[in-house]
Specification:
The complex is a heterotrimer of chains A (325), B (357) and C (305). Chain A has 15 helices and no strands. Chain A has 325 residues and is mostly helical. Chain A folds into two domains: 101 residues, no CATH class; 177 residues, Orthogonal Bundle (MetI-like fold), CATH 1.10.3720. With 357 residues, chain B is an alpha+beta fold. Chain B has two domains: 230 residues, P-loop containing nucleotide triphosphate hydrolases (Rossmann fold), CATH 3.40.50.300; 108 residues, Nucleic acid-binding proteins (OB fold (Dihydrolipoamide Acetyltransferase, E2P), Beta Barrel), CATH 2.40.50.140. Chain B contains nine helices and 19 strands. Chain B has a six-stranded mixed sheet with strand order 6-7-8-3-9-10, sandwiched between helices. A five-stranded antiparallel sheet of chain B has the order 13-12-11-14-19. A four-stranded antiparallel sheet of chain B has the order 2-1-4-5, with helices on one face. The chains are: A mainly alpha (325), B alpha+beta (357), C mainly alpha (305).
């Protein structure tokens, strides 16, 4: 090995220092990352910081041009003192839990089971139909729903139910929650449906055949084989959709704007948005809205880390099989 | 171009791909890296190509250390098992790609691609896409692409293993002929020992990332340095059995139950007095005879030209090749003559040869 | 059912029963599925009927005299209004901006993450995953400040600041990047290493390998991402609505929303026509690229399965 040492020293003269080469190579790779990196920095990282800072100021459209006043956690305190805070909190829970259980997971699972139990082409057709709400521009989609639940004589529900003797009414005003959940649920169900059906189709046929040979009924097969075998997608959809629902407000904004009346269907994310950016009177309370928003951001960050851990996405990552850059 | 590997090591965390490989390849030499899959031969090849960076050790091209040199500056050509042709490019574009990257002028590129393609016998296929070619044709395109840049070093990564048996045979001789004509230093990775034996000037046998032997084919065959090399090179493989070698009346006897042969003193001497050693002998060095070690036929496998016969001697098995016209049957008793000038001895603990060090 | 004995003593009876149960099971499935899509069908039906009628009551077209009937094309008169073409163009710019922006930026980053061995790679990968799960709409309030700041920059301001198409597109591109990077990385992961090695040995730089060798291999993936981004850009409401004022940089959805204003009585049938107009490209993509869409709307979430 003594000979090796000699040659290794000789190397240093002839080769550029490997550290420098490595650095240059790393720069090359970062070149690929740079555009994405800059955008992520500007539109994810900096906003998180801004949101946090603004949430501790009294910044609003009335004192925009003046120096900001740092008021510490006052906005957060004010948020919890808000007269409508309990209402908004209950609304948020109601919205997330009902939509999630009935549609994003519940109906999604039912649809996945149904579409995988019938003929393949037909199953595909129904899944595509269910994708329509998701793909329809939100404004147009809400337009449809508003007409469906419109007041007499325009509303479609009234027309369809009148032969059954149901009193015509302005459904959207009288049952706003029903429609908030339906509207979101019809979009939300397709995500779980797609994931569940591909998971169900991936279950080896042998298990089902074996169970049938053993005399299991369809319901027993679903309960004892299908559901246990898709528990990971189930858990994934549940957690992922909880977070999406918690922070989503676009459809509510378009459908009811949180109304009718005071805060009837207003959820947390919508409050944050409206306080900061879209108030009726053009008075934007950025600081206060940011406090509402930052709590959601905080929950989002924590849950995102948890997902990463629980679902072990890291294990999907393969090592590059080329060293040079 | 001369290539030298010194202490060449590649590790990924705890996984060792190649472990202190030392060897040198002379200018114009054809060297095969031979070993079972996962032995580190492709890893070593990719380090030579510049795709992998060595964790330790050095690669020298003509005395120059190239560890940090980018693949494109190494002037090597490489042929892959999967051919690795660019599916969206025509044959012409595939072969011409290295020249395009070197900014060779259009006309010259045209000429050089045509010349290489004609040499490979695919001159009429230049407008096709790889998917429209047979496996053999694809391999010729891959070879053409490697040759067109007139590399100083050719690397082959199991180039023939995706071809059918007949094509493999003809491509084998073609690659060998080309290499000799062009005189380009070549490294040829394979797990097929026949390929290595027939094509290479020298063979580097590898196992578990380590270099087991590096020698010309005949030497590898006749003087295997380790038990692994002895067993891996040669088909059908060498027979092994545990024996004890003793000196008796000036003769060296290799003995086990039901087995006693006299071995030449130059070989016997090195194995004597060590307790149990492993005796190795190739099937073609054991013949049927009227006198000798007796055994019973256990299995007969017809190979066509020969029958491969498994003969049981006590609780040991010896494979031999026999003339099919003898019509040997399972259960027949036979006598075996061992060509003791060809026996090998190995240390059972270190698995190194006792004869060649 | 009369009891018949099959050749083997049993089986005909059981077989029939089994077959009958299967038909019954799948008919129930069909019935339930058909019921489930009724609201979707009704919504679309109303939109199409309303577009071509004077006014509607429920799903019935009603003419000026209050009788059923009265088909008309007058709702499409908005096509003569230059404003609609202006907002359509804006929609198109946002959509194409997203196709190119997300496609280019995420395939660059995804290539590095999938196939290059550089320091910091692991960190970037985890970051992509975290951002992928992170609900980006919560950042809109803060992005308002970022855009306001960009507005004050000399060269960038007029192009990418608040109330500019560039700003809207940039925000939408950025918020879709984690998804794009994750999806593209999945496509890159499946490519042959040998081909890339061959190109490097042939003398290409990593950038040329990416551009000339790798990207052509993932055209289907790029196409899928492009369609997805086009649709999400074309349909975008929340971000254009939040970061623009007035009609100069409004896109179709924002324009449509303004039509359903709370102050003036809404001409629902004209609104329906504008809605259908906006739906046309969406439905065209929907009909011709269904399988692609189905896979992409699961949003690269395959990892969880």
């Amino acid at each position: 090995m003594a000979q090796t040492t000699v040659t290794s020293e000789a190397l240093v003269d002839r080769e550029p220092p490997s550290r420098w080469a490595q650095f240059r190579a790393t720069l090359g790779a970062w070149g690929f990352m740079a555009p994405a990196g800059v955008l992520v920095l500007v539109f994810f990282f900096i906003p998180v910081i801004i949101l946090f800072v603004v949430s501790m100021t009294d910044l609003s459209s009335s004192n925009f041009s003046e120096p900001w006043t740092f008021i510490g956690l006052e906005n957060y305190a004010r948020l919890f003192r808000d007269k409508f805070f309990p209402k908004i909190l209950t609304n948020t829970f109601r919205y997330v839990i009902l939509t999630l259980s009935f549609f994003n997971v519940g109906l999604a699972l039912v649809l996945a089971l149904l579409t995988t139990h019938i003929e393949r082409r037909a199953g595909f057709f129904f899944r595509m139909m269910w994708l329509l709400p998701r793909i329809t521009p939100s404004v147009v989609y809400i337009l449809m729903w508003r007409r469906i639940a419109h007041q007499p004589p325009f509303g479609i529900i009234n027309q369809l139910l009148s032969p059954f003797g149901v009193e015509p009414r302005y459904w959207l005003f009288e049952r706003p929650w029903l429609f908030v959940i339906l509207v979101n649920g019809f979009v939300g169900a397709s995500f779980g449906m797609i994931l569940f059906s591909s998971a169900i189709e991936a279950i080896p046929r042998d298990y089902i055949t074996a169970a049938k040979v053993d005399g299991a009924s369809t319901l027993q097969i679903i309960r004892d084989i299908t559901i246990p075998m898709i528990r990971w997608p189930l858990l994934f959809v549940t957690t992922y959709q909880t977070l999406s629902l918690l922070t989503s407000f676009e459809y509510i904004l378009l459908l009811t704007e949180g109304g009718p009346g005071l805060f009837t269907t207003e959820v947390w994310a919508l409050t944050a948005y409206k306080r900061a950016l879209k108030t009726y009177f053009g008075h934007n309370q950025w600081g206060y809205g940011a406090a509402w928003g930052f709590i959601l951001v905080f929950i989002g960050i924590v849950l995102a880390f948890v997902y990463l851990r629980v679902f072990r996405f890291n294990e999907l990552v393969q090592e590059p099989k080329i060293d040079v850059l | 171009m001369k290539v030298e590997l010194e202490n060449l090591t590649k590790r990924w965390g705890d996984v060792v791909g190649a472990d202190s490989i030392n060897l040198e390849i002379q200018d114009g030499e054809f060297v095969a890296f031979l070993g079972p899959s996962g032995c580190g031969k492709t890893t070593t090849l990719l380090m030579v190509a510049g795709i992998y960076k060595p964790t330790e050790g050095f690669i020298r091209f003509d005395e120059r250390i190239v560890n940090q040199m980018a693949p494109k500056d190494r002037n090597v050509g490489m042929v892959f098992q999967s051919y690795a042709l660019y599916p969206h490019m025509t044959v012409f574009q595939n072969i011409g790609y290295p020249l395009k990257l070197k900014k060779v002028p259009k006309e010259e590129m045209q000429k050089r691609v045509q010349r290489v393609a004609d040499m490979m016998g695919i001159g009429h296929l230049l407008d096709r896409k790889p998917a429209q070619l047979s496996g053999g044709q694809q391999q010729r395109v891959a070879l053409g692409r490697a040759l067109v840049k007139e590399p100083q070093l050719l690397l082959f990564d199991e180039p023939l293993s995706n071809l059918d048996a007949r094509l493999r045979l003809s491509m084998r001789s073609e690659i060998k002929r080309l290499q000799m004509e062009l005189g380009i230093t070549s490294i040829y990775v394979t797990h097929d020992q026949v390929e290595a034996m027939t094509m290479a000037d020298r063979i580097a046998v590898m196992k578990d990332g380590r270099l087991q032997a590096y020698a010309p084919p005949e030497e590898l065959y006749d003087q295997p340095r380790t038990l692994f090399v002895a067993g891996f090179v040669g088909n059908p493989p060498m027979n092994f059995m545990e024996v004890e070698v003793d000196r008796e009346n000036g003769d060296y006897h290799a003995r086990r139950e039901g087995f006693d042969v006299v071995v030449p003193p130059d070989r016997g001497e090195k194995a004597a007095g060590r307790g149990k050693v492993i005796l190795g002998i190739r099937p073609e060095d054991v013949t049927l005879a009227d006198e000798g070690v007796s055994g019973e036929i256990y299995v007969v496998e017809p190979l066509g030209r020969d029958d491969l016969i498994d003969v049981r001697i006590g609780d040991a098995h010896v494979h031999i090749l026999a003339d099919p016209t003898l019509r040997l049957k399972i259960g027949d008793n036979v006598k075996l003559k061992f060509n003791t000038h060809k026996v090998q001895f190995f240390d059972p603990a270190t698995e190194d040869s006792l004869l060649w060090t | 059912m009369a009891t018949t004995v099959g050749p083997k003593g049993y089986g005909v009876e059981a077989g029939r029963l089994y077959a009958a149960r299967r038909v019954f099971n799948s008919s129930i499935a069909y019935i339930l599925l058909v019921i489930s899509i009724i609201p979707i069908v009704i919504g679309y039906a109303w939109l199409i009927i309303a577009t071509f009628s004077y006014r509607t009551e429920g799903l019935l077209p009603i003419d000026a005299d209050g009788n059923v009937g009265g088909w008309t094309l007058r709702n499409w008169a908005f096509l003569n209004d230059p404003a609609i073409w202006h907002v359509t163009l804006n929609s198109l710019v946002i959509a194409l901006g997203m196709v190119i922006g997300v496609g280019f930026v995420s395939s660059l980053a995804a290539y590095a993450l999938s196939r290059m061995n550089f320091s910091g790679r692991k960190g970037f990968l985890s970051l992509t995953l975290i951002l992928h799960a992170f609900p980006s709409v919560t950042l809109l309030i803060a992005i308002f400040f970022v855009l306001n700041f960009i507005s004050k920059l000399p060269a960038l301001g007029p192009r990418f600041g608040y109330n500019t198409l560039g700003g809207v597109a940039l925000v939408m591109i950025s918020l879709d990047l984690p998804l794009g990077v994750w999806l593209m990385k999945g496509f890159f992961d499946n490519l042959s290493w040998d081909m890339e090695r061959a190109a490097l040995i042939d003398g290409a730089s990593r950038f040329r390998v990416w551009w000339e060798i790798i990207l052509p291999q993932i055209k289907p993936g790029l196409a899928a991402l492009a369609i997805f981004e086009f649709l999400s850009g074309w349909s975008a409401f929340l971000i254009p609505f939040t970061f623009t004022v007035g009609t100069r940089v409004a896109n179709l959805p924002v324009y449509l929303r303004q039509l359903i204003s709370d102050t003036a009585p809404t001409n629902w049938n004209q609104v329906a026509a504008v809605g259908l107009f906006q739906l046309i490209p969406v439905l065209v993509f929907f009909i011709f690229t269904q399988e692609m869409l189905l896979s992409i709307y699961s949003g690269g979430a395959k990892g969880g399965t």
